[in-house]
Amino acid sequence: MSVRRLQKIKGGSYIISLPSDWVRKMGLDVKSGLKVYEVFDGLKIRPPNEAKNEKVIPLVDVEDVKYLVLTYYMQGIDRIVVRSPRVIPLEVKKELRELQLQAYGLEVESETFDSITFKVNVNVNADLESSFRAFTGKILSIMEDVQVMLERFSEEMRDDLLARLSILNKDYRLVIRQIALGVQKDDEITFMVYPKDVVLFAIAIRDLGRFLSHLSLFLKVIGAQEAKEMTQHFTVLKKLLHDSVQMFLTEDLSAMREIRSNFKKLERESPGTEAGKEVVKMGSYCVAMMDNAVNKSVRIFDFKVR
Questions:
Q1: Alpha carbons 216 and 166: distance in angstroms, whole number
Q2: Spatial distance between the Cα atoms of 163 and 36, rounded to a whole number of angstroms
Q3: Where in this chain does the record put each SpoVT-AbrB domain (predicted)?
Q4: Backbone φ and ψ of 291, nearest 5°
Q5: Which of 13-22's residues contact partners 24+ apart within 8 Å by CB, and which partners?
Q6: Which structural domain, as residue segments, surrounds residue 37?
Q7: What is the CATH number of the domain that holds 160?
Q8: How does pLDDT run along the chain (306 residues), one tens digit per residue?
Q9: Model pTM?
Q10: Of 120, 140, 162, which marks where a domain is finished?
Q11: Does a structural domain hold residue 2?
Q12: In the chain, where do the E strands start and end?
């Protein structure tokens, strides 16, 4: 690391010299072009490079392929080709086409006897906090309706909630894609948040994804007889989620003791049934969100634009 002095040149621009070792290491010369762009805590300089936007998946096991297609989608790939050494059976193609229902902007671009190609046609924005707020807002809205279902249990309400959770998984995948692209293409998508915070947003979204998985399991195992009994515990859980999410967004740590206390209450008082265990597991992810909030509140540097 070296500190280099700015030099002002004619026309009001500024220049700095670049380390010769770095120029040689990157294979550059005096005619080379460099990308120069602003990030949250400074300016970045790097050679232009071409993105690898396509992945090819050999079709061996259809479940593995479905997992990989969604993973590549979340990691920012724009074109995914599934290729088989033989004709792909109709039922397998049908399963693969249905992946379009699980991710925003995932579309079948083309098909042949032995391949199916997906393209991704969805925009991601640079406002990471806004995306996080929208995602958590939808979760909290579903939690309110789960509370209603527990008080007036019906199979129709449960089925509706499970369907909405399935749709919410699409939002989860899109936010993960947004983070992956923002980290890898920071010249095009600049989050303008403290660099460490991007990591914590990713961890927080992952924790919320696991929370949703356990909420789905809770809905599948809860029955009419147990629903009323679970209402009071679910009220505590709902507050846990709200408080921990707000702490993450505001970095106000005043609710820390109450969050810990409410989680201990859940552990102590929730029944030992499958539904009760799922409530405690969801509570543990609220505590994880609190940990993320505490970590987010600590910064070594206080970077401010003058």
A1: 9
A2: 45
A3: 8-53
A4: -60, -40
A5: 18/45
A6: 12-46
A7: 1.20.58
A8: 778 888 888 888 888 888 889 899 999 988 889 998 888 888 888 888 888 999 999 999 999 999 999 999 999 999 999 999 999 999 999 999 999 999 999 999 999 999 999 999 999 989 999 999 999 999 999 999 999 999 999 999 999 999 999 999 999 999 999 999 999 998 889 888 888 999 999 999 999 999 999 999 999 999 998 999 999 999 999 999 999 999 999 999 999 999 999 999 999 999 999 999 999 999 999 999 999 999 999 988 776 654
A9: 0.91
A10: 120
A11: no
A12: 7-8, 14-15, 35-39, 42-46, 54-58, 79-83, 106-112, 115-120
Cα-to-chain-centroid distance, residue 100: 18
Name the CA radius of gyration of the chain, rounded.
24
* Same domain as 218, residue 82: no
CA 67 to chain centre: 16
Tell me the two tokens of residue 252: 């106000």
As a dihedral over the C-alpha atoms of residue 266, residue 272, residue 278, residue 283, rounded to 10 degrees, the angle is: 10
| CA–CA gap between residue 55 and residue 82 (Å, rounded) | 9
